[in-house]
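Comment thread on ticket #2218

A.B. wrote:
> Attaching the input chain for the structure job we discussed in standup.
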Amino acid sequence: MKQRSSEPYPAWADAHLALKYITKGKARGSKVGLWVRGESQRRLGHVGKWAGRRGGLVIFVGIVSLALLCVGIQNIRLDTTLASLWTPDSGRLLHELNYVSKVSGLTTDTNEMLIQTPKANAHHSSMLNSKALLEHLQVLQKALSVTVDLYDVTWNMKDLCYSANIPTFDVQFIDQIFEKVFPCVIITPLDCFWDGAKLLGPDFPIQIPGFRGPIKWTNLNPQELLMKARLAGQAGETHIGVFEILEGFMKRAGIGTGYQEKPCLDPKDPDCPITAPNKGAETPPDVASILSQGCYGFAPRFMHWAPDLIIGGPVHNKSGHVVRAGGLMSTVQLMSSSELYEFFRETWRLNHVEWTEAKAQAVLTSWQTRFAEEVTHLSVDEDRSHQFNFYSFTPSGLDSVVESASQFSWTWGGIRVVGVVLSAIFVGHFLDSSESTINWKCRVGLVLGGTAIALLGTAAGCGVAALLKIPFNVASVQVLPYLSMSLASQVFYILLYSQLNTSADAKTTLKKYGFSLLLGICIASLFIAAGALFPIPAVRSLALQGAIFLAVSSLALIVVYPAFCQLFLKKRKIVGTGCNSQSVNINTGGRNGGTNGSRSAPMNTLKNNNITLNNEKNGKDKQYCNLLNNEKNAACLKPDDIDIEITNEEDEPDKCLTRSWTTLYVNLLSWKWFSGIVVMLYLLWIVISGLGMTRLRLGLPITDVVPSHSSEWEFLTAQGKLFPVYHIRAVTKSNFDYPNNQKLLHKFHETMSSLPWVIRDDNGGVPPMWLSVFRSWLLRLQAVLDKEWKLGHLHKEGWTDSASADGILAWKLAVQTGHVDHPVDITQLPSNRLVDSEGVINSRAFYVYLTAWAWNDPLAYGSTASNLKPEPRNWVHSPEDKDLKIPKSAPIKYAEISYLLRTSKEDGTQEEDQESQILAFVKEVRSICGKFEARGLPVFPWGIPFRFYDQYLTLPINSGLVLGLATGAVSVILFFSLGFSLRPVGVILTVAVITMLQIAGAIGWLGVGLNALPVEIGLLGVSLVVFTTVQIVVAFCCIPGSVSVRRAVSFRLVGPPCVQSLILITLTALILYSPEFTFIFTHFTLLVALSSLFSLLNVLLLVPVLLAVLKPQSWLVGLSHEDPAYLQPLTPSPIPKRGSSSRSGGRSSGSSRTGGKNSSSRGNYPPPPYSFRGSSSRNNYYHGSNRGGGHSRAPSEHSLSTITEEPSSCATRRSAEIVVQPQVVVETFDRDCNTTTTKVSAKLKVEVHSSMHSSSSNSNPQSSVNTSTNMSDNSGTSASTSSSGSFTSSSASSTSSYNEKFSVDD
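C.D. wrote:
> Ran it. Output below, let me know if you need it in another format.
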């Protein structure tokens, strides 16, 4: 016959049985909660039963399955590009980035930068001296001279740099001179001195007939060159108009004497020109005063380098001049990959190569890498390295160093795994609170088995994530796997605790704990996965991978670990022993003797229901069998005279209290001041957390996500400290009528220029936008037209020979109509104005004028960095050209307006203050763009600050959305899983919300920048406390009785392993510390450790108080108002007869030992309707046997039935009974340490009676003993408490109830 559960808490052990109490009207409670738990128990019981019977097979299949999933690890895809990791991949920003990339081909700025700072112990702490600048020159000059060989072509800086646009002429020697002489654009403090010309080349000096020596920028005087070239051109009959255009071009650009009149850093340099103001001087130049106003490039009108771009950390005197500086910076502007591809697409150098944009990017990356390597090599020079630091930066180098740090290291990985395993062993052994006496070696073996399964499950989770094509990043590789192992410990510690504390099989373990474990895993995974709603790819990948790792490893533990534990314990024949042991000593003597000659010695001990059997015949012959706990108790002895001694063996109370910390904690819960103190403490904690939240600051310094002490990290650190300058662009899009909305564009530029962060020139103004430069050019031509019209050089029929080149160009522009069919109208002269009195360019011919401006004033056009798309049509003005038609450019779809912004960086300003200022101007610029977009101007900002900081503008909304959706989904799941009751859901959600407040307050007090990653860590912390709270709340709902009893029992059932797992997570977080990444320490080591500690405190302090306040209803409650724990017995159902046995109508007076296998009457009688107080399900049965074959015995109304011994079934019997001759049915349960020892002996039959609340005894010395003990008489406890160790036997009208004091009877 299938045995019934013998648990004292039916809702905990067998929810279907508990549900029968409600359906039959014997009790009340939550049908839904019991049905959901019962269905899960039924399915999990099948899994546990299969796992228990086929333990080896389950372990083998589980390991093979997990190993197959691990194969997916080879498909891992690493994402190591910071731009793609931390740039939102959805929403407004993604649309803007895609628009820029699609229309202009740009993805980011491509610049090569070099920063020089003094050593901490250097003699010259300021960089404003000649020695520092000369060292800067040497390093930069050598680094720029590097070349790379790729695709059978040698690439140098001249091939890759951005060079100023120059006009094209039809004079060959002039075009060649301009092509070779015009240098790359380099923003450097050396441009203030003649020495800056050494960077401009050309690499191969130019030989020009009529000039003495080769021409380089160190000896080039552009005005003198133009004059000599003009004379040579006249001698060669070159048209004078070409030189006129060239002269006008140089004049507009401010190109005069070049670098010949600038001071020399070394006045005694033999190459220093005689025109230098300090040639031959004995003292070096005053570098500080020269650099105070910035520097000018070779085209001063369009190349002014503000001081913020070239000197860092300046200290000003009262007059505003710079007196000290902490660093120098030079920037080389390179072409983007798309620009490089377009530039060389149709050149002869690459005819043999299938030239693509990817190859152009490879060329750029290779040269930048070579540049950085050269700077590193030069910076370690013995003399130079003692005085200065040199840092270089390349985007490709940054991605490379992050990729290198993201690679898995077997050494560090092994060390961390060993650290987690050792921590798990330490926590599992030294903080174990179970009352099992299993030796430490077996405990370590069980813990190692759990960690091994967790490790294998985590690896399988990695394979699953890789198969789902979720990209991995540095956190996924360096942090998440080890953290996932510790998170899975929440599962295996609970399963281990169940095995050690109860010696239960896999089926029983999964039935009791499986439902709450699965619910906790589901809720925890949902909270962790909620971070995937953030639009940040790094956080999304981390959230999904964390949920997958936790789910896979936890499910593996639920299925495999119980089978492993059962098999492990079975192989070693281990049975646990508790602090409290109740035993029945059965002493047998010789055939003729009684008890006088017998000796009693313990043979076997069980936890809670512990029975010690001693059988001695003539001092030698012993027969005994091991007694399994709870539902597996059985005993067999020879049918001789037996003395039965029922004892409650208990340690002293002090010993029990010191032996288990759980007892101390449970006693603390009963302290009357506990709840009040906890409430006051948490009110204070919430106030402190609120104050911390007011200190929250948004942001994540880029240096936190770059490996520490790499050259890129050092550069970014120095740049953030000394050069907090950011280049941003305002991008105007298509679907905008540029010609007719010029005033709106000018108004937008004025508004942007008024921002306090915008860098201004030495006159207090800002660089003009492209439309302003375009208008200025037209206004100058209009002035020339008006002047020469009055002089008669220009007229309606054309122009005279006296007309200038600019006058002829102005005349051609004035006759343009802008219509394709009728492009020229001479009748417009002279009334037609290129620019009207309001400063608006002629809208009808706007795109015609744009063509002329872009190609005839290229240096001005290029200096605006407008990057107009589509590019203006090609048309170069020639005074000899009589064709009046000028091609019309296509309407603008893309245009940029550039700004340089600087945070208000003064010496001593903290980095977080800079980030707050970055966020302030990002927010302000976004606001301005939004306002003008509402007025019809489609504009948006673009640049590094917006790419990385724009996410923080929507972070509060996104965080609220993520937390709200996660909490809502969890609430629904909990509501349906916990019996449609709001109170247990309220307990769990209240703990979750308070934990999130605590974490947010800690983030504020610690000064950690708030971004999507700390929010995800907060969700992880919430998942920890929610998982543990779910275990306790589910156990609380399964336990009847008073709140104090339910709290204590629920914590004893699941609390200790949850505490162990939280401590292990804290230790694991400390193990994860990595000196390479700051964010790993601040976001994982620090925040995860604090989150687990907060969860631990909340579980120990807050959860008990919330349970006492909200009082979630028990799922099974008796109908008695006086004693809600009282349960009426279930009416037994008849059990069909087997064999030839017949039901007896009266009470049988004896039993025979005859009969065969089919005559056994074990299953012929329904279980008697008696029940232990506190366990209605475990006592509704008993076993009888009839070996006589003719009739069977019916249950008595007043005494226990006697059952004959069944030696043949001794080895297989499963019950909580002792089979003796005469048969005695003994079922015991223990209490806490305060119990009473009762010894009863009988030779023939034992009959025990116990009342519910009082004690009385009646004994028949010849045949029966009736015993009941009151705790008030024996142990000094409350009189309303029944004795532990009491026995109850009654007829169908007898009743049972739960004990007021809890008893752990597993």
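A.B. wrote:
> Thanks. Noting for the ticket: The two ends are 22 Å apart (CA to CA).
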